[in-house]
Automatic annotation (TrEMBL):
Transmembrane segments: 9-29, 102-129, 150-171, 191-213, 249-275, 295-321
Family note: Belongs to the binding-protein-dependent transport system permease family.
Keyword Transport in annotation: yes
PANTHER family (UniProt xref): OLIGOPEPTIDE TRANSPORT SYSTEM PERMEASE PROTEIN
Superkingdom: Bacteria
Protein name: Peptide ABC transporter permease
Pfam family, one: BPD_transp_1
A Gene Ontology term for the protein's cellular component: plasma membrane
Annotated localization: Cell membrane; Membrane
Topological category with respect to the lipid bilayer: Multi-pass membrane protein
Matching SUPFAM superfamilies: MetI-like
InterPro entries, per the entry: MetI-like, MetI-like_sf
Amino acid sequence: MRHLIRRICFYLVALWASITLNFIVPRLAPGNPAESLLLRFERKGPVSPETLKALQASFGINTSDPLWLQYFQYLNNLLHGNLGISFTAYPTPVTTVISQGIVWTLILGAVSVVISFVLGCLIGIVMAWKRGSLLDTILSPAMTFLSAIPYFWLALIIVYIFGFSLGWFPFSDGYDITLDVGWNGDFILSAIYHAILPAVTIVLSSVAGWMLVMRNSMIMTLSEDYVLMANAKGLHSLRVMFAYAARNAILPNVAGFALSLGFIVGGQLVTEIVFSYPGIGYSLLQAVQGQDYTLLQGIFLIIALAVLGANFLADLLYTALDPRVRQGRSA
């Protein structure tokens, strides 16, 4: 219980630090979103200074107030669930913009992470069980090479080959824009079809890491006494491989899987930008281009919450799965 309280206090401090940085960093960037929006209105006619002040107040960037007062106003708005109004989607609230994009991000990321985790673990188990074979000799360096490729380069290569050159898959938008958005068969099939290339990119860029960790952990586990005893009993090889060796070797990947769930929101930003996928990453690009402070802060806050939550979950999960860690921390 004492360990749990310490970890909760640590993550609360980390959350406060993230919120503070989330407030400061966008304000270090040059420019003013209210002035940019004001230029749009000035094309239709002159705008008074009072209008500019009203726009600044609506975006929560009233430069006439001291920075510390703006900070406490920002904290008060967060406590009330008010993330402000998006400049790029004016007058839509930031919560609405994020809620529209995060659904696409979570579905794409969750499916891709689960596929890459299961596939990587299975390949790692087989490679470790048949270490030194032709399969292990070919796949190990191939996966190492694949893991060294930056995932945004991999995304560009996939777009060029399968989207632009061959034309097999669409490489922009999350669905056919001629269809009506809704839970109908045509829309769902279109969304799946448009998500194939982004999902393949995420899977290929992450499966190598799961595989290599699982292979190395599995090789160490295969030399343990209980695995040798299971082989000496004459148990079926599949039972020894999965029930004895893989069950214990998968522990590092389980903790990593919990962390990867938190990085779903922030870990595929560039992939969404490359494919113009309507997720959080594409919204972030629009916010940066439009100097949208409020939307930037909202997206960064969601990413920080997801990462901190995943780290906390991984900490609890690792402690629950490994008694040695639990006993060491309580000692």
